[in-house]
Write a structure and sequence with these properties.
single chain, 221 residues, mainly alpha, 9 helices, globular
Length: 221
Amino acid sequence: MQDVLLANLAPAFLVLGAPWLVLHRGLSLRARTHGPGRSPGPWPEPEPGRAAWLARVSVLTVIAFNVAWCAWHVPALYDGALRYPAASAAEVVTYLGLGVAFWLQLIGSRPLSPALAPLRRVALLAGTVIVSAVLGMVLVFGYGLAYPGYAGPGHRVLSVVYDQQTGGAVLWVLVLPAYVTVGVALLIRWLNDEEAQALTSGLDRLLKPAKPAWPSRPGLR
């Protein structure tokens, strides 16, 4: 539950809340050139030539999030976060930082917009769902003890395995509502864009003058 909250739900709400808008108004360097009592102006828009670079960054960000999500569930790192406070702090920072970057690529945050088209974002989201499902299935259907750090004197090995399988079910199921909601919203956005594009192209064909079927020749009337 802690992993789901830190890596998925908390970053999603941070992105929706857009706290950087307040930071932008209060700490923007452009505010000095406007003088007191004036707003610092809108958030600068990215240059058009950087679209391909931003698209690659989006894909790499989603990949980095999934790698970190799986890496922190490797037994050595997971038990290390249980024993060492520094490792636990690194886990929290990684989950929150990459989680915010991950959701920025999918839903954006005022005034930042995702670099990828809705359908491509759906593909990245589907890949993330598959990775999370595979990780959860490994824990749910595994019968061995994956995390020895929890097999203390207050637990029996069998009960720890049952708890481990329950944790796998949590990782498998509880991340789905947020992902499915965003995926449906992106699909609706993509369908609306396709419909608007088809309507625009149809209006363009109606407004353009029709060309004659027979080519005209000079001197002929």
